[in-house]
Specification:
The chain is mainly beta. It has no helices and 4 strands.
């Protein structure tokens, strides 16, 4: 899964991550200013309709 968002300094933070089917937890660091973000990505609805 790829994630992309804008850091508070205005730079784009993006990366790829792999994890379980239900929840993924990872850390993202802005290369420009060094701000560290903790991310948790949770599946709300699967794409196959289940």
């Amino acid at each position: 899964m790829e994630y992309t968002f804008e850091c508070e300094c205005g730079e784009e933070v993006s990366d790829f991550t792999r994890g379980g089917d239900v929840e993924i937890s990872t850390v993202a660091v802005c290369e420009e200013c060094g701000t560290t973000y903790g991310l948790t990505i949770t599946t709300i609805q699967s794409g196959d309709g289940e």
